[in-house]
Amino acid sequence: MDSESGAVRWVVWSGLLVVILAIFLAFFKEHKNNFSTTDNLASSDTNPLPVISQLTDFNLTNQIHQTVRLSNFLGKVWFADIVFTRCAGPCPTMTKRMAELQSHFAENPEVAFATLTTDPEFDTPEVMKRFAQRHDAQDKNWDFLTGTKSEIVRLAVDEMKLIAREKPRGEQVTPEDLFIHSSYFVVIDQRGRLRGVLESLDDSWKNKAIDLATKLLNEEQ
Question: Are the beta carbons of 90 and 98 closer than 8 angstroms?
Fold first, then answer.
């Protein structure tokens, strides 16, 4: 009887040992994969952001009637987008979010902002200034830019890779439905090179924007 009882206990304990060993191996395998993933992310984070395009000089006018050129931004990381002040779509949200970003970097003079208009005939410096004030934008390091349509198209579409075009009358839903344009923020480095693009209407837009700017600020020049 004792021998039978001992055999049963041996089988039970052997079974428990096998189960414990299996759990341990599964745990180790899972965590090993997690560590590998973390290492891969860390190593990929050291890779520089790609250079998408090189901006050339431009000549535009901001909301306080100052001439703004590429040289105004050299040495700074800057965000840019394109809107129009009569927009009833995403433009107000985009501008409010850019204002949040400006507030985040308020103490950093090496970060700047630029908003171009798709509607330069209507969006004069005075109109742009009222639009900026309405959305809590500060003049200090944020230029709302207007100028000739050809100059804006060259900079925004050809070099910043943003979409901006007039909407045909037959496609306009409302009188303010005048343009189709990107809702992206683009990020430009200290040498005037386009280095990143992010969707401003995404839920995670702010963290992505801050990460991109921080990476460029820490990049060796």
Answer: no
pLDDT at 106: 94
Could you tell me the pTM of the whole model? 0.74
Q: Locate 118 and state its tokens.
A: 């798709």
- Alpha helices in the chain, H assignment, sequence order: 2-45, 91-104, 125-134, 149-153, 205-217
Q: Which residues contact 68 (CB under 8 A, 6 or more apart)?
A: 58, 59, 60, 61, 62, 114, 143, 145
- pLDDT of residue 123 exceeding 60: yes
How many Cα atoms occupy the beta-carbon half-sphere of 167 within 13 Å? 15
Pairing mode of beta strands 111-117, 142-145: parallel
* Cα diameter, the chain: 102
